[in-house]
Amino acid sequence: MPYIIISTQIRLESGPTFVGDEWSEPKLMEYLGATKMKALGNNFTEWRSEDCARVVLNKLEKKGYKVVSMTGVGQTCIWTLNKPEESTS
């Protein structure tokens, strides 16, 4: 089952929202309006959308994703979403 984790800083209500890691599906990232970036000091890249988390969550819902959990860590909000596999029967 496909999972995606998105996160944003609480104090940045209008964006940006981090929407994937370097192995995320490029077509989905394009749909979310995300660009791949590497922050200074990090040894990994991540996808970032300028949209606020609410807009990203709405877009993901239209693609069939559902929130399965949400938590806060310090000043960061993190959502885990899942898209059920389509049955072929």
From TrEMBL:
The keyword Transmembrane does not apply. Coiled coil: none annotated. Pfam families: GFRP (PF06399). It is found in: Cytoplasm, Cytosol; Nucleus membrane. Its main location: cytoplasm. GO terms for biological process: negative regulation of biosynthetic process. Transmembrane segments: none annotated. Keywords: Cytoplasm, Membrane, Nucleus. Gene3D superfamilies: GTP cyclohydrolase I feedback regulatory protein GFRP. GO terms for cellular component: cytosol; nuclear membrane. It comes from the Eukaryota. The keyword Nucleus applies. One of its GO terms (molecular function) is GTP cyclohydrolase binding. InterPro entries: GFRP_sf, GTP_CycHdrlase_I_reg. Belongs to the GFRP family. This is GTP cyclohydrolase 1 feedback regulatory protein. It comes from Mytilus galloprovincialis.
